[in-house]
Amino acid sequence: MTSAEEGLSAAWVPRDPLPECGESSGRDPRDMNHTKGGLVIFTANSHPSGRELSKRIAERLGVELGKVQVYQEANRETRVQIQESVRGKDVFVIQTVSKDVNTTIMEMLIMVYACRTSCARSITGVLPYFPYSKQCKMRKRGSIVSKLIASMMCKAGLTHLITMDLHQKEIQGFFNIPVDNLRASPFLLQYIQEEIPDYRNAVIVAKSPASAKRAQSFAERLRLGIAVIHGEAQDAESDQVDGRHSPPTVKTTGAIHPSMEIPLLIPKEKPPITVVGDVGGRIAIIVDDIIDDVDSFVAAAETLKERGAYKIYVMATHGILSCDAPRFIEESAIDEVVVTNTIPHELQKLQCPKIKTADISMILSEAIRRIHNGESMSYLFRNIGVDD
């Protein structure tokens, strides 16, 4: 067994977050192997651990992974060969995002197009983490890259998309196909209840006002208090760097009356770091959707430690953990980082034992089963509000 397989096998598996799955069909709700014929699941070779996630999903559905060959030629071009018939079948392409994001996208697009030209009945993409999701707003003379990726996927032949915790829910509007944006919060909430001793003495923390809604959602479901850290360094996604706030380089008065001037927006000034809420003598649980550059999380942990928190957890759906993130976490005041396996991070877990994994293959396999069998997806979104 490789180190990556060992890391994945050590992932925390939820007890049963879908206790009423399939209740409308009148069968055993835990029978995940009940699927109609004509289901094919493909996975690319973006990352070995990504194949392990696909294997878990296939095992829950009681099917074998489809036969496909994906490789790069000497000139780095991606080639895909479908090695079984998909004519008239429902194809699901599972792709996890590796460090080489662009290769991951090309594998996905070429595989989808190969299935389309092979006369598949439907092609559903399963991307637990949607790449380029942070680039979903116009910034000065940049572009909305996530809109471009969505258009490329639709053009390649995708007929449905399953993803999880989009960075901005509005990204669903970039597609002209159905998008199911699943939530990982039930798994993280269950982890808190089962794996954090004395979690009743905890407080849910938003490391910035931007993540306050997510923190509020967690706090209300766990019946806990909430705290918000305000005054940290300017976030890269703030509206201050949006091109719409850029003043004209040359003052011109030819088009308007000389006495009229366009009022400029007053520049922001961050106040000193403050914590709104009491964390003294409590367990602090920081929640967010993505943990990549951990500087802001480390700074938040230090602030909470200074305010009296005696244990600090970080909960996030997508653990990108780029560059030296594992080392920074290991040397920080953070006691534990819990992420799901939407993105492979086995190497980071070997570098930092504080990183833990919650398995979300159960909800992905149930979503695939329901779509393939033509069942309602509403149960998977039960008790999810507009702000969740």
Automatic annotation (TrEMBL):
Keywords annotated in UniProt? Acetylation, Nucleotide biosynthesis, Phosphoprotein
User: Basic and acidic residues compositional bias: what residue ranges?
Assistant: 25-34
Q: Name one GO molecular function term.
A: ribose phosphate diphosphokinase activity
Which InterPro entries has this protein been placed in? Pribosyltran_N, PRTase-like, PRTase_dom, Rib-P_diPkinase
Report any Pfam family annotated for this entry.
Pribosyl_synth
Q: Does the keyword Acetylation apply?
A: yes
GO BP terms: 5-phosphoribose 1-diphosphate biosynthetic process; purine nucleotide biosynthetic process
Extract the CDD domains matched here.
PRTases_typeI
| Ranges for region Disordered | 1-34
Q: How does it assemble?
A: Binds to PRPS1 and PRPS2.
The record describes the protein's role as: Seems to play a negative regulatory role in 5-phosphoribose 1-diphosphate synthesis.
The similarity comment for this entry is: Belongs to the ribose-phosphate pyrophosphokinase family.
List the protein's name.
Phosphoribosyl pyrophosphate synthase-associated protein 2
| Taxonomic classification | Eukaryota, Metazoa, Chordata, Craniata, Vertebrata
